[in-house]
Specification:
Number of strands of chain B: 0
Structural class of chain A: mainly alpha
Shape of chain B: globular
Strand content of chain A: under 5%
Radius of gyration of chain B: 19 Å
Shape of chain A: elongated
Distance between the termini of chain B: 59 Å
Number of helices of chain B: 8
Largest sheet of chain A: none
Oligomer: heterodimer
Structural class of chain B: mainly alpha
Helix content of chain A: 55-70%
Helix content of chain B: over 70%
Number of domains of chain B: 1
Order of helices and strands of chain B: HHHHHHHH
Distance between the termini of chain A: 87 Å
Strand content of chain B: under 5%
Number of strands of chain A: 0
Largest interface: A-B, 34 and 34 residues
Chain lengths: 103, 180
């Protein structure tokens, strides 16, 4: 559309006014395209989509289990430290040490 | 169905494999952590340890879990921190404190630093590799240049001591922010 005409939506475009697409409009367009692509991909690959959902679910559960395990290991570590501090050696476990080899 | 259709599942699959490997490595590093706890606490019982070395051992002992934030911070800060530490003499003081240790204590301290490095490498292989490369490319030339200019080579410098300085600076900064 050339300058000085009225667009179909009723907005008059002046001769010296440039039509600018704002950054927000551009971001909305990109998001809209991505969403359309995703929906299109899901409709063509429903089994793969379900597989991805299962994998993501497994990732969440595994992440939670890892955090729980880390907490347990941290407790064990802190207990070992305080045991050595109090008694001079750990009474919780026997630690394989390479001190003998080094000497 | 084209090959590109499998790209999303490939990405998620890679995440899953990474998660499995990471979990196994975190668990496999636990005996090393317990060994670090034993040897570190035993070393702390040694009398007349210089205060800097004592602080350094405390740092190693209290940073066996949750190093991600510090390693990320170090990635950003090392290019500025290492030259600053060389100019202010922080690295020299760090090394001189270690030089005061007896041969046996120094060997045990170095073994502790190595052990800590192994633990961090096992739990954060990618971040640790990037940090190591950064140290090699930045700290190495800076330390050598400083030695060439001053005519004195810096004493032994390790990654743990640099991380410790970065961490203490960061916590000082956050305390100041909290107080302001």
């Amino acid at each position: 559309m050339s300058d000085g005409q009225t667009a179909p939506n009723g907005i008059h475009i002046g001769k010296d006014k440039a039509v600018e697409i704002s950054a927000t409009d551009h971001a909305v367009d990109v998001a809209s395209d991505a969403w359309k692509y995703t929906l299109n991909w899901i409709s063509h690959n429903p089994i793969l989509f379900i597989a991805i959902l299962l994998f993501l679910g497994w990732l969440v559960i595994s992440g939670r289990q890892t955090r729980i395990k880390m907490r347990e290991m941290k407790l064990e570590y802190d207990a070992t430290r305080s045991s050595v501090r109090k008694h001079g050696s750990s009474r919780l476990r026997s630690v394989p040490s390479d001190k003998g080899d080094a000497q | 169905m084209t090959l590109s259709d499998f790209l999303p599942i490939g990405i998620v699959g890679a995440l899953v494999v990474n998660s499995i490997l990471h979990r196994r490595l975190v668990i496999a590093a636990q005996p090393l952590r317990l060994e670090l706890a034993e040897r570190g606490e035993a070393l702390l019982r040694t009398s007349n340890l210089p205060a800097r070395v004592r602080e350094s051992i405390e740092f190693l002992l209290s940073h066996t879990f949750g190093m991600t934030g510090l390693l990320l911070l170090a990635l950003v800060v090392i290019p500025f921190a290492v030259p600053t530490m060389v100019v202010t003499g922080e690295l020299r003081r760090e090394g001189e404190a270690e030089a005061k240790l007896s041969v046996k204590t120094r060997a045990e301290y170095n073994a502790l630093v190595m052990l800590h490095g192994r633990i961090v490498f096992a739990t954060h292989p990618a971040l640790m590799t990037l940090n190591f490369l950064e140290m090699l490319l930045i700290a190495g030339p800076v330390v050598l240049l400083s030695g060439a200019l001053s005519g004195r080579l810096l004493p032994e410098v390790n990654q743990a001591s640099i991380l410790q300085v970065i961490e203490s600076e960061a916590s000082l900064l956050s305390r100041r922010k909290a107080a302001a």
